[in-house]
Amino acid sequence: MAKKLADNSQATSTTGFITSDSTTSTKLFVLDTNVLMHDPSSLFRFEEHDIYLPMVTLEELDNNKKGVTEVARNARQASRYLEEIVGTDLTNLELGCPLAINGNKHLAGRLFLQTTQVDIELPGLAGSKADNQIISVVLAQQKQQPNRQVILVSKDINIRIKARAMGVMAQDYFNDKVLEDTDLLYSGMKELPQDFWDTHSKAMESWQEAGSMFYRITGPLVKTFLINEFIFYEFDKPFHAIVRKLENDHAVLEVVHDHMNPKHSVWGIVARNREQNFALNLLMNPDIDFVTLLGQAGTGKTLLTLAAALTQTLDKKIYSEIIMTRVTVPVGEDIGFLPGTEEEKMAPWMGALEDNLDVLNKTDEDAGEWGRAATQDLIRTRIKVKSLNFMRGRTFLHKFLIIDEAQNLTPKQMKTLITRAGPGTKVVCLGNIAQIDTPYLTEGSSGLTYVVDRFKGWEHNGHITLVRGERSRLADFAAEAL
């Protein structure tokens, strides 16, 4: 394919642009700088199609390469990839450089760089602005290759609108998206139909083990179950269980512990709805190493997690310490402008932690004022607040690690954090994918969406989407009405 492109459709004119003699099925994608700074490996994501980089894109990469931010790292990595692709042989630069390098031998496309000045008048747009120069380059390519689709790819919605106004095809970069529609994201639970027991109770077995009730069932729905997925039946006899094992056409279900009963409260906290009960079952299970909790504000993500963490750290002594971190938006920026130690610098970002600790500290009404003060001091010695900036290279042993506001993490940052977990450590990610503050991250490409999708079905992972706000009648009404 690459040879065919070079021989037939990629003849180069004296003006330095690619020309096309006949209609070709491959497309030419002109990349904006923000695509490369968002995902440097995007150079290898266009399969058999060609890529064209305007000179202003290379200049913007150069301007953004300094610093220790994620964007600067990506800019440097993109430049390294470009050097590998272009190489030292400049004789074929106008014919395009093959993208099939290193582990990307399957690619048939080529990389083209702008080598000549473009002089195209853009009505109403200043030609000197970088975005407008890129649109000019795309228009020039369209004129040179009238029989070929030339498409601008950018993460910037404004340049896409301007490009379409100029008659240029423009697209977002979709390759990093885990899901096109986040409504399809795994919720961690499944509702059973009314005829479930009629179709699944044949040859059913039941037994008790370690204080829990188990059922082994078979039937058509079993094939749709995932390990550690919650199932619930809400008809004549409500039934809430979690899928523990999948064996061919059989499934082993364990009836969940009822944390809605005050007798089974966790650090004085009682689950107020079905989803909170499911969440506490995951948080209190030491066999589940990784938990993700999604939900809008007020659904109880932080409160439930802290209650479970304190119970297992102070009472059961399963974990030695609670470590809490959250994304300080903008992510990874220096926190040195705030006074004090690392924990004091993080304090302004940790209002949610303080609010929830106040609630948890008031659950023991018999302790009295002195008792509560002593408990509060004990709790604060066991909870450490850490910044994301200093996580690389660390290993946490027997810790309960809470990552708050995880929707603002990229998949790469999420991987960096989760791989910090050593033996005996539990990692809990909390977030609301409807509240993303990081530029270029969307609901479909967030690191939180990424891990929910990739970890589902693993025997040591659990996920639940909390749906009902339990903050107050005022907060619930505001969430619906505003």
Lay out the secondary structure.
Layout: H1 2-9, E1 28-31, H2 33-38, E2 50-53, H3 55-63, H4 70-86, E3 97-98, E4 110-113, H5 130-144, E5 150-153, H6 157-165, E6 169-171, E7 189-191, H7 196-200, E8 205-209, E9 212-218, E10 230-233, E11 239-247, E12 250-255, H8 274-283, E13 290-295, H9 301-315, E14 321-326, H10 342-346, H11 351-361, H12 368-382, E15 383-385, E16 399-404, H13 411-418, E17 426-431, H14 447-455, E18 461-466, H15 473-481
Parallel strand pairs: 1-2, 1-5, 2-4, 5-6, 7-10, 13-17, 13-18, 14-15, 14-16, 16-17
Antiparallel strand pairs: 3-4, 8-9, 9-12, 10-11, 11-12
Helix pairs in contact: 8-9, 9-11, 13-14
What features would you describe in this structure?
The structure is a single chain. 31% of the residues lie in helices and 18% in strands. With 482 residues, the chain is of the alpha/beta class. The strands form three sheets. A six-stranded mixed sheet has the order 3-4-2-1-5-6. Strands 7-10-11-12-9-8 form a six-stranded mixed sheet, with no helix packed on it. A six-stranded parallel sheet has the order 15-14-16-17-13-18, sandwiched between helices. Strand 5 (150-153), helix 6 and strand 6 (169-171) form a beta-alpha-beta unit. The longest helix is centred in the N-terminal third of the chain and has 17 residues, at 70-86. It is elongated.
